[in-house]
Structures are given as C-alpha cells and as structure tokens.
C-alpha cells in the first residue's frame, strides 16, 4: 500500500479517503487540486461504498473535474471550506467544481464552497451583450443520476451557484446559498435537460433567480424553500433558439419569498421559436414584499438579446395553477399575466389568491390569458 493512501472503515462500511493524506494543506493558500483529484480517483475506482473526506480547514482549489463512472456509491463529504481561485485565467472555463457521469453520488457535510465572486463580478457583461463571457459555476453537475446534495453552504459564486445538466433522480436538501442582491447572474440552482429533481428544506439568497428551469426540465418538485433576495423561481427564459425541449411538471409548494423582484414566474423571449410549457402548480406560497408575486411574461427581453421586430412568442403555455398564494406586493399589479398574442395561455387557474399592495388597492392584469378564477380573489381576477 502506497504511503499516500489512507483508507479506514466507518460505521456505514464506507472506505474513507482523506484529502489531507493525499497532500492537501488547509492554509487557504496552497493549491490542493492534485491532492483532491488523487483522492477522488482512488475513491471512485474502489469497489463498494467510498467517501472522499475534506476535514475542517480552508482549502484553496483551482477548477477541477471529478469524473465517473465509479465502481460503487461515492461520497464527497465537505466539512471544511473550499475556496475558489481568483486568477483570471480560469474565468472563462465555466466551472469551478464539476462532477460528471456519476451514479449514486452523495455530496454532503457542514462545510462550504466560497466562490470568491467579488473578484469576477466586475467582468460580467451579460446584461449588455448576448455573447458575454460565461463565468465559473461553483458546483456543476453533469449527467449525475440517483444522487443527493445535502447540508452544504455555497457563498458568492462567480456566476451560477449550482448548475444541473442532464441529471436524473437528484435530491438537493438543507443547502444554504448566499450572494448579495446586486451580484450578477448568481442563480441559486439552475437546471436544464434534467428530470425527477427534488429541492427542499433550503434557503437561497442571491442576485438572480433562486431556482431557474431551462429547456428540458421535467418532473421538478420544490418545497419548503426560502427565497430572497433574488429574482424568484423562474421557468425560462424560453424560446430563444430552435428545437428547444419542453418544460413540464413543475410543483412549487409550501415556500416563502422575501424581498424578491419576482415570486413565481414564467418568462419567454419575444421570438418566433416554438416550444411548450405545461403542467405547473404553485401552492401554499407566502409573498413578503415581493415586486411581482405572480407573473407570466411572454415579452421578456434584455438589451441586445432580442431579434428586431419580434413581438409575439411562439411558446405555448398551458395548465398553470396558482393556488393559495398570499402576502404583499410592492407593485400595484400583483397578478400579471402577459401571454402571447399568437399562442394565448390556456388553462390558467387562480385559486384563493390574497395579495395586497402596500400603497393602496392591488390590481391584476391579463393579456391573451384564458382560464378560471376560484375562491377568494384579491386583487379581483382579470381572467
């Protein structure tokens, strides 16, 4: 047995690979990429249950890829603080910590990922140009299946905090995500082409969407989430390019939004590319000082990112249920349903809505929206 390998058995009979035994130094200055990589490779290629352990302390870590497939259930236990590099040579990679092609992965612990975002935020130009530089995501999960992320804290990502691509059967729970309200594009959890995802018992404070769903998101279950500050929970943006996969079967329940720009939102670009959004349910949602508590925006556009002359989205939205939503709006229009002229929204349900404007009577606005209003309606329904 080589001197750098450290394996012990714990109660769960998992072999533990301590990064310190592979040369990691918890001084916040030493690059530990090699030690982490060696610990992961050894754990991943060991049969049975294994765990990479990051003990307490602060570990500097340059961009790294942890790749499978692995030979058994693989844990990644973060008890210390991982600190991202501020070297600008890494800003264009698009990831900091990237797990790929792993089944039965468990990322957990009471530690944190510090993305050191303030070093990169001044270089974010995405609000001005569609060809902006993609800054690193703190935790990028690609093709991860039947896995969990539990208990960790993410702080100040350079861009998106957690990004899911082509994942299936993933549970994210008891995570804390923290970034200032003015930090650019720091979505809490963003996903695309992912199915059977559950997010629960978590707190997300960020400068963009707390949770965002892009094309191909299906069977997404969100519950007991505290969102704020941020831009709310958003489906979209959709319809920007051809051949986008549909978004369907989202449920957001028993959650609270505090001081967010939006509450529950669906947004599609004002372009001519068709796709579908269907079967969304929002139930038992508390809004506290939210600017746009309920919003469908099919004319979404950022400076420099829209086709000239485009005015009517080709994304079809149907079967969206807003149930038992209450609290206060910081804008007069508490319910704003601005649907496409060419493809009007179908099957919208407003059921027991109680939203008040903090400066006077609230109102609702509907355009090209078809559906039904049930139960209490404050403001009066426009359907």
UniProtKB/TrEMBL annotation:
One GO biological process this protein is involved in is:
cell wall organization
Which Pfam families does the protein's record reference?
Glyco_hydro_28
- GO MF terms held by the record: polygalacturonase activity
Main location (coarse class): secreted
Where, by residue number, is the active site?
231
- Which SMART domains does the record match to this protein? PbH1
Q: Name its cellular compartments.
A: Secreted, Cell wall
Q: Which domain of life is it from?
A: Eukaryota
- Keyword field: Cell wall, Cell wall biogenesis/degradation, Glycosidase, Hydrolase, Secreted
In terms of InterPro entries, this protein maps to: Glyco_hydro_28, PbH1, Pectin_lyas_fold, Pectin_lyase_fold/virulence
- Record's family? Belongs to the glycosyl hydrolase 28 family.
Name of the molecule in the record: Exopolygalacturonase
Source organism (scientific name): Rhamnella rubrinervis
- Species lineage, top-down? Eukaryota, Viridiplantae, Streptophyta, Embryophyta, Tracheophyta
